[in-house]
Amino acid sequence: MEGHHHLDQHPQPPTVKIFCHANEGYCLSIRDGQHWIKDTRHSTKVKDVEGRSAFSLVNKATGEAIKHSLGDKHPVRLVLFDPHNLDESVLWTESGNVRNGFRCIRMVNNISLTLDALGGHVEVNDGTSVVNWPCWNGDNQIWKMVPYGYDAIPNPIHSAPTSVCTPCVPVVFGHHLCSLTVSSQPQTVKIFCRANERYCLSIRDGKVILASANPHDPFQHWIKEMRHSTKVKDVEDRPAFALVNKATGEVIKQSLGDTHPVHLVPFNPHDLDESMLWTESSDVRDGFKCIRMVNNITSTLDALGGNVEVHDGTSVVNWQCWNGDNQIWKMVPYDDEAIPNPTYGAPTSCCTIHAALCRL
């Protein structure tokens, strides 16, 4: 059954209260909603680097899921939970037992970042914010999920819960989708690293690799998709973008952790999924820049083994940033004559992409 269940099924799934070891008298909450559903529908498909199953934490009162922060020491966010969308930025895993049955709750794609009751190593109080922080197994970083009794389940789904725990309120940021107008097909770029400029980012056998540069190979043409750049930025305030392959319509998705290959998934222009968003660093050397996860800029695109040699077929992974030549990249627009055969949907001219906020 792959752990599937739906929030609108009857009876409603049991809810849990979530509290940290620093002070069990305070429970995770939003807007006085302390009942959470540990949604495990993706647990058989998505696991972290330790093989631990992923889950979402969905608030019973609001239907919102806890979303990864934009980086360590930043607050976690809340987004409406879409049960039909596999978005790794709302997926978490639990560590093994740290102390007394308490565990770390980590990002599925970066288990070094955990839920943290901010300042809770000194004192947890009513209104303590919840952030992501590098894991050190402090009492304010280890958590326990305990089922409520069925008599405590709020009813209906949007009513306020009746638990007596005092809430810890995470900082909430709103997300509103943008509309997009495009004057024509966007220009494509080639992407290569400084280790060897004769090999370009491409797709082969469903994987992101480096291939011998060929401007007529449609799989080497990428669109730097900027539609979310005004809304989503990294901790250095650099705008986010997606890298969409012109030939396949697939987008590069963040890996499940350092040294793991990046993924390819179909690009949905109407879905704001931060697990497929990246940012560029400032110039490292000769105009080459790191391409980092928007929500973890310490993890960058890396031509695997390219510190020794880049070759045709080199895999592309995420790796801790050290600014090696195999980790710094350049995006260069193709000349018009280099555009691949139109049967692959090649662009015919450069365009400007305009993004505007939708009305609230």
Automatic annotation (TrEMBL):
Q: Which InterPro entries match?
A: Ricin_B-like_lectin_EULS3-like (IPR040249), Ricin_B-like_lectins (IPR035992)
SUPFAM superfamilies linked: Ricin B-like lectins (SSF50370)
Which chain positions lie within coiled-coil regions?
none
Q: Which Gene3D superfamilies is this protein grouped with?
A: 2.80.10.50
Q: Which PANTHER family match?
A: OS07G0683600 PROTEIN, RICIN B-LIKE LECTIN EULS3
Q: By what name is this protein known?
A: Ricin B-like lectin R40G2
Q: What is the lineage of its organism?
A: Eukaryota, Viridiplantae, Streptophyta, Embryophyta, Tracheophyta
